[in-house]
Automatic annotation (TrEMBL):
<keyword id="KW-0963">Cytoplasm</keyword>
<feature type="domain" description="Protein kinase">
    <location>
        <begin position="10"/>
        <end position="317"/>
    </location>
</feature>
<keyword id="KW-0723">Serine/threonine-protein kinase</keyword>
<dbReference type="GO" id="GO:0004674">
    <property type="term" value="F:protein serine/threonine kinase activity"/>
</dbReference>
<dbReference type="GO" id="GO:0010628">
    <property type="term" value="P:positive regulation of gene expression"/>
</dbReference>
<dbReference type="InterPro" id="IPR000719">
    <property type="entry name" value="Prot_kinase_dom"/>
</dbReference>
<keyword id="KW-0067">ATP-binding</keyword>
<feature type="binding site">
    <location>
        <position position="39"/>
    </location>
    <ligand>
        <name>ATP</name>
    </ligand>
</feature>
<dbReference type="InterPro" id="IPR017441">
    <property type="entry name" value="Protein_kinase_ATP_BS"/>
</dbReference>
<dbReference type="GO" id="GO:0005524">
    <property type="term" value="F:ATP binding"/>
</dbReference>
<dbReference type="Pfam" id="PF00069">
    <property type="entry name" value="Pkinase"/>
</dbReference>
<dbReference type="InterPro" id="IPR011009">
    <property type="entry name" value="Kinase-like_dom_sf"/>
</dbReference>
<dbReference type="GO" id="GO:0005737">
    <property type="term" value="C:cytoplasm"/>
</dbReference>
<dbReference type="Pfam" id="PF18396">
    <property type="entry name" value="TBK1_ULD"/>
</dbReference>
<keyword id="KW-0808">Transferase</keyword>
<keyword id="KW-0418">Kinase</keyword>
<keyword id="KW-0547">Nucleotide-binding</keyword>
Amino acid sequence: MTASTANYLWSMYDVLGQGTTASIYKARNKKTSEVVAVKVFNLASYNRPYEVQTREFEVLQRLNHVNIVKLFAVEELHMNPKQKVLVMEFCSGGSLLNLLEDPENAFGLPESEFLIVLQCVVQGMNHLRENGVVHRDIKPGNIMRQVGEDGRSVFKLTDFGAARELEDDEKFVSIYGTEEYLHPDMYECALLNKPQLKAYGVSVDLWSIGVTFYHAATGSLPFIPYGGPRRNKEIMYKITTEKPEGAIAGMQEVEDGPIEWSYQLPHCCQLSEGLKTRLVPVLASILEANQEKCWGFVQFFAATTDILHCITVHIFSLQQATAHNIYTPFHNTVSVFFEDVQAQTGIEPAAQQYLFQGHPLILEPSMKVENLPPTTPDHPIILISRKPEKLVAHPYREPSHCVLLFLFLLKIIVGVIHQYLQIARSLQKFRELILQGFYSYM
């Protein structure tokens, strides 16, 4: 069974996604066979006000950015010319949600992939703010993944059905979004049927971005009542609104039990301590229910841009047998770098000495970190302490018991297996680096 417009043809079985107002299909250009995505609005969508019906393609026509899915054309369905069809860029890698459902990412994305998500979402959101647009439905399912010829991912914001023009100081009262990612003020009105007493600003997007980043970093949602977010809505609202300052997650593990707050990302996620240290303050500042206390986009863009512009220096502490990623702004001096190393390893600057590629690496405190040699996880700078150091326990631990409660789920079982495979690969790499370091030292 097929459907078409003047220029595009698709099978009704080739569904990429479905929503309450439209379905998305994989289609081809009739002349060139170019693959695109078409969004076909259903008849129920035409019961909405006309300005709401036209809002999505009007917004997309104004946007032009590599991290936003492109709109190519607006056409009409052959079977029913009244039905509009948006012809958009096809993203071969599915959505960020699809990626997170891969068992390999059961405990979050690898650090390199997470940084790409961070960069793409920040740049895409910056383009929206420059054009005075609020998205209102940020979530992993609305972030598409394009895979380049080099295998590198590019993530793109999509689904602008709820988007509207809104400047930083403007407010709106209509409610859109997906409940797990919905700002608590909107959640209260939409899902608890409370009277609408508040107007909402652009900070609602920041809350959704915070939940999305936490989900991408850990593989799970930050706020989970007993039985899950959709089963226990009152406790879900309680968790998000009573969250202590600085907390980035809350979980209720027992029915009617206490809420356990987390101020750090879980130990089983794949991000390094260096990245966690810089990311957690951002999450704490945008996962803030009070719109007056929540960061604005200016602060958010400044903090995330700082992370993305950091130089990542890979360090392997020889005596401790631990690997570290030091995230440091390129304009910092090596003296600040020494302090960052101390913060992660406990080794004082005076006791730090370095080797790189089998040779001593002399670092003057006044040097800029941008002059450090480029490193990778396989070719780090070797750190040796001038003082005796204890072997540090391996940083990986089993997932917390709250996750193990759900081990009957196949996805989690396979995810744990991938976690242990990752541990085994890291141990093998550490063994090679220990031998390399000691040979270099001798």
